[in-house]
Amino acid sequence: MKRALAALAAFAALIVAAAEAQRPQPVNMAALAATAAAPTLDAYRLFTDAGARTPNAGVTPYVINTELYSGAALKFRFVFVPNGQRARYNAEGVLDFPVGTVLVKTFAVAPDMQHAPAENIRYLETRLLIRQQSGWVARAYVWNEAQTEARLTIAGAAIPVSYVDPHGEAASIEWRVPNRNQCGGCHEIGGAMTPLGPSARNLNRDGQLAALVNAGLLDAAPADAPRAPRAFDASTGSLDQRARAYLDVNCAHCHNPDGPAHTSGLDLRAATADPVHWGVRKRPVAAGRGSAGFEFSIAPGAPERSILVYRMESLDPGVMMPELGRQRIDREGVALIRDWIAAMDENGHPRAAQ
Fold this sequence. Notes:
By secondary structure, the protein is of the alpha+beta class. Helix content is 22%, strand content 18%. The strands form 3 sheets. A 6-stranded antiparallel beta sheet has the order 1-2-3-4-5-6, covered by helices on one side. A two-stranded antiparallel ribbon has the order 7-8.
């Protein structure tokens, strides 16, 4: 009897050991805290599978109201906040995330972005923003052709990509993965690396703020939290509100008093109240081909004479805005800003309720 019981206990121990072996290991906090970047994405254990399709425990997907334009790329966003800690709500800007937080964004394309954007998705790169004791650090990982591994790049990369875009046009581009300095070109504000997208106003949709509170990731979700409109959804805001939201996300990380383009004199943040700071009847700080000979950044009622539109419609590296992150013209974005400028009165305000 004793032998039988011992054998049964040993068998039970084997079952428990096998179950433990199959259980995913938790997120690798040591790798997140390390000064040196891990050579591969899987070292952080943010995902339980080699292809990074299944997030690990505590790694939570999220969406934002208005996205930064990146061509036709799909974006998959996740946030990890260390167990037992919460981000602090901030009504004015990006949430205050604790040390150990990771913001994950994977860029991907599908062969047919018009009719089957969810089929045969190819991951291109995964970017991490990690909150360490010294501040935020950025790391970029490039996916191999087999979609089984993403490796660290410091110098950046160019990935040939061909697909049918959402308008049915064939596109062949070199997807550009930023180098370390280029990450700072967008994410450094006031000399410090910072996230751009996960603000209360951009996360506030479909009960998402409350869901983050319920998941233990956020400390509060006030009923009066600000809400950014979705730039291309007229049901979420007026033309003026949606255009300002688009500029806030796509331009304001550089064009603000502490950003790398502060010398332009433009402040394109959504909270900016003075139309002159948006560019209304504002003359450029320097002449040249970047202005196309036009007088104002925004000529109210005349998008065809506005430097802002001219630079958005350009693919010339010496003219185009934004300077980084796109190889194609954002047709919807240009149309939105054209409509917005065309509807302005001479002072830069909407002519009528929209």
